[in-house]
Design a protein that fits this description.
Elements (H helix, E strand, L loop, with lengths): L2 H11 L12 H19 L6 H12 L7 H12 L4 H8 L6 H10 L2 E6 L4 H4 L2 E6 L2 E7 L4 H5 L6 E5 L2 E2 L4 H7 L5 E7 L2 E7 L9 E6 L3
Antiparallel strand pairs: 1-8, 2-3, 3-4, 4-5, 4-6, 6-7
Helix pairs in contact: 2-4, 2-6, 3-4
Length: 216
Amino acid sequence: MSVANSSWDTWLDGYVQGIPGRKTSIYTEGALIAYICDMRIRKATSNSASLHNVMQEMYKLSNTGKGYTEVDYRNILEKISGESFADIFTKLVYGTEDFTPFIVEALNYEGWKFETKPSTKEYENFGLKGTWKSGSFEISHVLEGSTAEKSGIVVSDCVHSINGIRINNDLSEWLIYFQEDSISLSIEREKRLKKIDLQPNNEKGFSKFKISNKSK
């Protein structure tokens, strides 16, 4: 979902996780959009203006008693910067496109380099996140389009064993050990045991990100 639609749902459902893969974090992605907007303003004005100036103008509108709209916000962004923000609103606020090119551009303006690296936790590279709980690995997140999702793993599944070997908070280690073999997971779903054959890693997983100074 877009940030705008996620914001609407979040207010309606009381901040519960909801349907897996449906909502995004309005706090994380909202903060990233604010940063992207800030860097665009700074770049366009040679640092003579920033998102802070936009917030000041919006505060003035709030003091009129009429408040402000989404249109007002975008108009102020474009007035202060002299730049169009159509792509940010279309692709990031109301759309679901990849943030990466925008983040790279924003960081580049500040002299930072952005890198994507595989996770050190092998199960995250398969598109899984979870916690060791009561003797099993309980799935908390399944990345859309990942090997885990395509294999049929869902949130709340509890992994007990891999290729017949009981795991002991070492799922990553066994995934690496069996990386050249077929992998079969024994999971518990709604109090029933189920066997899932894990598809080969399609390299769409939860990545780690590194930001470093370009001059170093």
